[in-house]
Amino acid sequence: MKKVLTIFLLAICAVITATAQGPVDPVSWRATAKMTSPNRGVITIRATISKGWHLYGMTMPANGPKPTSFDFAGSTGVKFSGNVTPSKAPVKKHDEMFGTDVTYWENSVSFTRQFTVTDSSKAGITLQVSYMGCNDRTCSPPKTKKLTVKIPAYKKADGTTGTSPKSPTK
Fold it and tell me: I want to staple 67 with a disulfide (CB 3.0 to 4.6 A). Which of 60, 100, 140, 146 is the partner?
């Protein structure tokens, strides 16, 4: 009986410890693409941030945390234009942990970037997002997440499919 009780108490302690540490990855990512014309489109990358956590901004001081960055080098058959644009401005605040002013987002934020299809037979978007999340007590280690996005068919205003790139099979 003592052995069963000891195992039970150890199991409860393990669950409490794992829960207290917070989520394994406080930021989840999803990406989609939408064609705005037969050969032009926009990719949207959405970050969902766990409650109590924040995702650091795209520019950081040298002594600050790892900034959020996007690398589209794995994409084929597309050419990107402009910069990655967040859906809202980040919060700016002095962070005692890093001893400097930082920017960050809470809850969720979306990022967009325009693209043109240059070769419909090879068109596909593969990107890597590098990021770091923290809460008031701890930070997750910097991470890099790979996302692959199929390019959908262009839909005309009347809802019919127009000429557009083929979706890659990945």
Answer: 60
